[in-house]
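ugh ok so i messed up the first submission bc i forgot one of the chains. this is the corrected input, ALL of the components this time, i swear. 517 residues overall. if the numbers dont match what u have on ur side tell me asap before i send this to the collaborators (the ones from the other lab, u know who)
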Amino acid sequence: MTEAYELHSGETHIEVHKFFPGAIVLVTAVALVIQASAPVYFPKLRIFDLPLLVTIYFGLSRRNPSTGLLLGTVIGLSQDALSGPTVPLGFYGIAKTLVGYLASSIGARLDTEHPAARFALTFGFFVLQQGILVLVRRLLLAQPEPWFNVHLAIAAAVNALLGTVLFAGFDRLRRR
Amino acid sequence: MRLGTFDRISDIRYQEAEQSLECALTCRKETRPSRLRVRKKSFEQKMVGIPSRHKSLALLGGVLLAQVLLLAVQIKRDSRGRLIRVWAVTAVTPFERMGAWGIGKVRGVWTHYFALQSTSRENEALRIENDALKLTIAQLQTRAAEADRLATLLSFKQSHENVPMLGARVIAASAGTASRTIEIDRGERDGIRRDMAVITPDGAVGKVIEAFRDSAQVLLLTDQYGGAGAMIVDSRVQGPVGGTGEPTLVMKYIPTEEEVKVGEKLVTSGMDKIFPRDIPVGTIVEVKAGNPFKLVRVQPAAKLDRLETVIVLLTQTPVEFKKEAEAANSVPSGPAAVVKP
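and heres the new structure output, hopefully the right one now
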């Protein structure tokens, strides 16, 4: 069984990676559990968004928009479900669906294996997710929310940094 | 021999034809599937390659829409209920409004253009009813005016209880223009006698010239033989007032040196032994210098050309007319005064 495919687009060669069975489910579950439980003991960890990082990574790696958006939907809805009654189902779901779709689409066109590219993409996707969340809050929930602030910029940078490190670890789950 | 040769040639041609037929058949068999394969391949390329991208976009749209709807079902606005309900109502309202507008228009067209069959009949019935109502209103107005007059007479009579008087209805007027008389529905049987004074609450009217059993004739002041003794209220200048056959009266024998002004009031003087004193006669509307007497025209206080009810005084006891006289003075009824030196 082949472990990796190559998409030929002109002269560029982009690999479509496959992972060990259950790896995606396991990583997603662990990320959700940590995201839900860690801030209870370490409130400052609330700045991280592990489900987003997982969505971005598998979206970039799988490079299939349908798979990416469905994975984002599942992760986002799970995060909504674990976020308590104040967060309606679909709040994170919409944002992560779009992030998953865009990550897969971008991953199918660019080489996203370089750490710098991963840092930039993660930073951008974090900002995009925040923008979507603010939009949903303003339009649907009628809640005033600032579009951008320093805390958001710091959170984006921190998550991008963590993502760059984590993605290197996730690469070990790929089939060779 | 010839025949054998012919047969061989025929055989050869037959074989060639058979071969060409076989070739044609096999070629067809070979070429047809290959064309189909090419077409199928290109079709598959089109069907698989292009829709896969659309498929993911459609999937993205569907998943996002489902989640937005999911959010809308959960979100509850304070005063307007759940967001999904707000959206549903907002989406449906324009169509409902359009529908209501359309139905209203159709109904209006039907009501105003097609369902007018009964309107004509209804219009005719309303017109008849309107005419009947107009007639009723006119009758009621007449009765109301009559009631007002009678009320005035009654009030006048009640305010002069010590003076014997009798109310009478005017039932006829003079047949020609040569005389100015009226006929009333009271006569000798009611106590009316010749030369009794006839008045209205506005002022002097005339005197009874003929009393019959159930009616009487009254000579108005404006008749050329009618008249009464009068005096000017302010200056107390006295003189007879008589008719000339015109609507106005003439005060006679006023010396030139007497100062008489337009607008002054005249009352009866009681010197004629018919009218008691102080009954309003009229208002001076014109004063002309003359020699040796002035010509003084007087507008009668009573509306002599529109009499319907009158009062016959059964005595010559003076009647207090001050209030009525003042009321009459407040509304001058004569034409504009013309003073000629």
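quick check: The helical segments of chain A are 23-41, 50-62, 65-82, 91-107, 115-139, 150-170. that seems consistent at least. Chain A is about 65% helix and 5% strand.
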